[in-house]
Amino acid sequence: MTAKDAQKLANSKNLDLVKIAPQAKPPVCRIMDYGKYKYELAKKEKEAKKNQKVITIKEIRLSPNIEKHDIEVKANQAIKFLKNGDKVKVTLRFRGRELSNISIGKKVIDEFKNLLSEISQVEKEAKLEGKQMIMVLTPKNL
């Protein structure tokens, strides 16, 4: 069908002539109500946005010379975050001369990881980035 005939047919039905595949030889067109089509697309997109779950990242800060009870308090806070479905970023910051004893910081992070091993899994292993050691934990799918 020629473009003029298709346009006349669309005008007679009070609809729009929309090119579906303009690169094809010959171009493929469809007669439809374009306003209704755009409305349906927006409605589907809004519905998809409503159903998706937003995952936030919560941060827990530790230091190499932290006491045992303080680690347990921070672990309890991390458990709350993980139960809510959030990821937890554990940051251990070295200050001054603490940077020369990275092994102490590694032990603290490992202890923290062991406290949360039942409820979480490690997404990103502990790694030294500048003056911080960073590890990311995600909730386990039970």
CATH domain class of the largest domain: Alpha Beta
Largest sheet: 4 strands, mixed
Reading the helices and strands in chain order gives HEEHEHEHEE
According to CATH, the fold-level topology of the largest domain is: Translation Initiation Factor IF3
Number of domains: 2
Strand content: 25-35%
- Neighbour order of strands in the largest sheet: 3-4-6-5
Which secondary-structure class do the elements indicate? alpha+beta
Q: Characterize the overall form.
A: elongated
Question: How many H/I helical runs?
Answer: 4
Q: What percent of residues adopt helix (DSSP H or I)?
A: 40-55%
Q: In the CATH classification, which architecture of the largest domain applies?
A: 2-Layer Sandwich
* CATH homologous group name of the largest domain: Translation initiation factor 3 (IF-3), C-terminal domain
Mean pLDDT: 90
Distance between the termini: 59 Å
Subunit structure: Monomer.
Domain Translation initiation factor 3 C-terminal: 55-140
Domain Translation initiation factor 3 N-terminal: 1-48
Main location: cytoplasm
Features:
single chain, 142 residues, Ubiquitin-like (UB roll), Translation Initiation Factor IF3, 2 domains, four-stranded mixed β-sheet, two-stranded antiparallel sheet, elongated, Translation_initiation_fac_3
